[in-house]
Design goal:
Layout: E1 3-6, H1 32-41, E2 45-51, H2 53-56, H3 62-78, E3 86-89, H4 105-114, E4 122-125, H5 128-136, E5 140-144, H6 149-153, E6 162-164, H7 167-174
Helix pairs in contact: 1-3, 1-7
Bound molecules: 1,7-di-O-phosphono-D-glycero-beta-D-manno-heptopyranose, magnesium ion and zinc ion.
Zinc ion is lined by residues 89, 91, 97, 99-100.
């Protein structure tokens, strides 16, 4: 199967250092929804793996998070696409869970859901922890320069990281 996994904040939607705490604060990045729909229409399975420590911090609730994700799903569907599994880590840094990126637990949940290996699967993120999670499961780390991506690019990223301007450029590459 053609599977691609996306980080959410900073890749699909604008990120904020104050967290994305409501549906109103959830604003898609230019071209991101069309990119997901283009991939989906071309037969790709598009999943999402996102840290959401704002839940543990009490900044928003699961119903609010789910409403953001319904907006995302509806917007992709309106473009003729389908968004697959959205898996998230609800924990905080001190919860010592196994799913908070850079740990690969979210990616492993995607692999389990689709019963497919992750070797070489593109995981597209804007933070170093996204790239590290990809490397941990032998997936392909892909950095986009939206969200925190430019800051991340200035750090030491995994040597095999692919770098693109944004999610639209990632879709262009995969669909070329
Ligand atoms: O990029 P993804 O994984 O989709 O989601 C990131 C968000 O959960 C938030 O993650 C926080 O990091 P801490 O969880 O506080 O370390 C901060 O980076 C926030 O700016 C950001 O909105
Ligand atoms: Mg991010
Ligand atoms: Zn977790």
């Amino acid at each position: 199967m053609q599977l691609i996994i996306l980080d959410r904040d900073g890749v699909i939607n604008y990120d904020s250092d104050d967290y994305i705490k409501s549906v109103d604060e959830w604003i898609a990045l230019p071209g991101a929804l069309d990119a997901i729909a283009r991939l989906s229409r071309a037969g790709w399975t598009v999943a999402v793996a996102t840290n959401q420590s704002g839940l543990a911090r009490g900044y928003y609730t699961v119903p609010v998070l789910e409403s953001m994700h319904q907006v995302l799903r509806d917007a992709v569907q309106q473009r003729g696409g389908h968004l697959g599994l959205i898996t998230y880590c609800p924990h905080g840094p001190d919860d010592h869970c196994s799913c908070r990126k850079p740990l690969p637990g979210l990616l492993e949940q995607v692999a389990q859901h689709y019963q497919t290996p992750l070797d070489g699967v593109w995981f597209v993120g804007d933070s170093l922890r996204d790239l590290q999670a990809a490397v941990a499961v032998n997936a392909q780390p892909v950095l986009v320069c939206t969200g925190k991506g430019e800051l991340t690019r200035a750090q030491a990223v995994p040597s095999n990281t692919l770098i693109f301007a944004d999610l639209s450029a990632v879709a262009d590459q995969l669909l070329s």
